[in-house]
Design a protein that fits this description.
Blueprint lengths: L1 H5 L7 H5 L6 H12 L8 H10 L10 H11 L5 H14 L18 H4 L17 E10 L5 E5 L10 E2 L12 H7 L7 E3 L3 E4 L4 E10 L9 E3 L11 H9 L4 E3 L1
């Protein structure tokens, strides 16, 4: 793109930089200011925090971005904009920190509206957290006569893609029906249902897993491998499945 659009000369203007593939507002501003000493805004999370506290901006993010940009722009000197951009980022990273900011050594403390009211840590204002939906599923812990656990691998695409797991149903709101549950079991029964439910929180949803356990005489059909109990910690199980494996050592009722 640089060759095709700019004759091989890397653009120095923030607007032209933003038109290049993979360059967003912050990166464009940082390149223009730091590499070319242009008067361009480079607003990362650290700069957002400094500006929001200086003006005690009550608008929650991300709606506050325009106000934050105006505050940051008002601070920008005419000389050495590249040094200013880096200094403001460093100020947020080392002094105006998210928790316990070091206001006593901040060069902007005298004009900080948040500090004047003692509410530094309340800014920038975060939007209210959305309630996470609850999904349910069933995990199946199959052991052989030696206690080894049958492990499979998740699909390459999707949540925890390509990672090691114990077999499980899909995780859905309301939970799987009995037919889906039966189809996901890796081997014939009898299966026993644990009395303990495994709970785990992902970024976008909460999960509750029932756990069924069984003993197999042979390896199930399909791809997978036996993992000795002492090797489970090194098998690469995600934390949700480590919880499942730990729960499987408890009591169970026949299913």
């Amino acid at each position: 793109a640089v060759v095709a659009r700019h004759g091989g000369a890397f653009p120095s203007d923030a607007q032209a930089l933003r038109a290049l593939p993979g360059i967003g507002p912050y990166t464009a501003g940082a390149i223009a200011a730091i590499a070319f000493d242009r008067r361009a805004l480079a607003v990362d999370g650290n700069v957002e925090r400094v500006a929001a506290r200086l003006a005690a901006i009550a608008t929650p993010l991300p709606a506050a971005k325009a106000e934050i940009g105006e505050v940051a722009a008002s601070l920008m000197p005419r000389a050495r904009p590249g040094d200013f951009a880096q200094a403001l980022m460093d100020l947020g990273a080392t002094t105006c920190t998210p928790r316990a900011p070091s206001c006593g050594r901040c060069p902007l403390a005298a004009g900080c509206a948040a500090r004047a009211t003692g509410r530094q840590e309340e800014f920038p204002v975060k939007p209210p957290r959305r309630a996470r939906p609850l999904r349910r599923g069933v995990a199946f812990v199959l052991r052989d006569a030696r206690g080894a656990v049958w492990l499979t691998r998740r699909a390459e695409k999707g949540l925890l893609g390509g990672m090691v797991q114990v077999p499980t149903t899909d995780w859905i709101e309301g939970g799987p029906d009995e037919a889906s549950r039966a189809a996901a079991r890796p081997a014939p029964g009898p299966w026993r249902l644990l009395g303990e439910t495994v709970r785990h929180v992902f970024t976008h949803f909460e999960l509750e897993l029932e756990v069924e356990v069984a003993v197999a005489r042979r390896a199930p059909d399909g791809e997978g491998r036996w993992c000795a109990p002492g090797d489970l910690a090194r098998a690469g199980l995600p934390s949700v499945f480590r919880k499942v494996a730990a729960a499987a050592t408890g009591g169970a009722r026949r299913r």
